[in-house]
Design goal:
The protein has one domain (about 5-85). Helices cover about 75% and strands about 0% of the residues. It is built from 4 helices and no strands. The model has no long low-confidence stretch (mean pLDDT about 90).
Length: about 90
């Protein structure tokens, strides 16, 4: 594995650690993110809209230029919504 790849992975891990700390410190964040996702998941440019609303209504900040960790978070959020829909 090249040093650029290792550096990128280390940065993503550090970002995810910070994100997890924020989520653990405020148990309302997951419910808020799921609600936002439910409302916006079928809209055009849903990823960006979800990121913007999550940023404006929680302690989670997702910049305009999403990092790999930000993209991973939105991807996992959408997977959780798909799993939720499959239960019904």
């Amino acid at each position: 594995m090249g040093s650029a790849t290792e550096s990128r992975q280390a940065k993503m891990i550090a970002e995810m650690r910070g994100f997890i700390k924020k989520v653990l410190s405020d148990p309302t964040i997951p419910a808020q993110c799921m609600e936002i996702g439910r409302r916006l998941q079928h809209e055009p440019d849903a990823d960006r809209k979800m990121a913007d609303e999550i940023s404006s209504s929680t302690r989670i900040r997702i910049p305009e230029e999403m990092s790999d960790a930000d993209k991973l978070f939105i991807e996992v959020l959408k997977e959780a919504l798909e799993d939720e829909a499959a239960l019904y």
